[in-house]
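Hey L., structure's done. Input below.
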Amino acid sequence: MVVVAYAGAAALGVGIGALRGAPNVFVCTPLLAAPASARHLLSLGLGVGLALAVVLGTRHAVRTRVWAETLHRELRPMARALGRSAVPWAALASGLGEELLFRGALVPAASAAFHNVAVGALSSSALFGVLHQTRGRARVTWIAFAAVIGLVLAAVFVLTGSLLGPIVAHVAINAWNLRFLIDHDPLRVRRLGGLLARGRR
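Output:
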């Protein structure tokens, strides 16, 4: 079901591109004047760097910030229902599907509609954030987090004109963070920490 849903998102992205006369949604007109090979490499490097920053940052935040721990606890049942074996497929499908639609298709389409690349990136990222819904107290946090990550991915895309980095970053972030959601139980860690503290007294 997850793979089918994201395949639909990818098809929608390609369809939007085709309607605009730009069916290759893996590329756009870049802000950076450089050979295509250099821009693809830069996009890849920025994507890998972003993935590492987000993965390490989320782990630190979950262990040190209440808002991040709350978000983690509220997203954890969804990740556990998905299961470890489905994580690689879900990460790949979501990374490809969402990047083809929200960055590859909607950033150029919105930029053309508003005659402004920055507004195009902001509007597509805002929509990306709003469509990331969850129940509970962390709903606004999840929307804001997704919107900010979406904006950074959009910036990499419009700078380099290459969707390679955003796809790699998105797939890596989803793969590592889904596994972290499944494997890391903040409540259990807190209980163990309390037991160890009492044992030392």
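Helices lie at 2-19, 36-64, 66-82, 87-114, 117-130, 139-160, 164-183, 186-200. The mean pLDDT is 92.

-- N.
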